[in-house]
Amino acid sequence: MALRILLNGAKGRMGRAIAGLAAEQDAVITAATDVGDDPAKSIAGCDVIIDFSSPQVTGALLELASAHRKPIVIGTTGHQPEAKAALLKSAARVPCVWAGNFSVGVNLLFALTRRAARVLGADYDAELTEMHHRFKKDAPSGTAERLLEIILEERRLGRDAVRHGRSGIVGERKPTEVGMHALRGGDVVGDHTVLFAGMGERLELTHKASDRAIFARGAVRAAHWVAAQPAGVYDMQDVLGLK
Ligand code: NAD
To answer: Is 136 tagged catalytic?
Structure first.
């Protein structure tokens, strides 16, 4: 039987993308809610909730999921760190996948970056580039920030190791630096490259997004997976078996 989804934020870009491809992933949207709707009215008939809406609604949605023992997939971003820490406690009462990026390719890039940083070690200089469309307001992207975190964790470096662009007489590159370069232009959906440069060779790991549907497909895949899990908070690395 197809997976029955309550989709919150259904009128948004992600909501519409998920509704458009649910059928091809053996899922059906049994309830589509947005601003002004009450998801409580339709929760009984779903197997799992998917939310791509606003950070303000996450708390109430988690309470509802918990009261009805429904698994939930949260794609909404923009939570303040303190607020998120509190929300994670109530999320743990149900099976919950919470991820800032549902792309399968990007999640594999996270895992490959960790492996490359570990295998190549500090002899290989790590630099990151990301490119996004001209309308993007923040830099670097959340995905680039996560890639940076992974490299810093593997190399046991602090945030002070990060060099955002270089200009002027900056001196020779220190082995402990991690370069971060944000490019902007056109309609680029999202490109990320992690580069490890050694003496005599370099390795580049690149992901290029050309369609926002990758996030929608990943979210429906996560919904299928989380419906069969015990209570706890998971991310896409769990869904894809990358941990
Ligand atoms: P959007 O603005 O196009 O859509 C958001 C929708 O949520 C709108 O229809 C809006 O009316 C609705 N909404 C707002 N408040 C609501 C509430 N209280 N109750 C119900 N519905 C409400 O945005 P989008 O591009 O679809 O993105 C939605 C969220 O998902 C954002 O936080 C975005 O950053 C995030 N996002 C995450 C990923 C990922 O892979 N995790 C990918 C893309 C977007």
So the answer is: yes
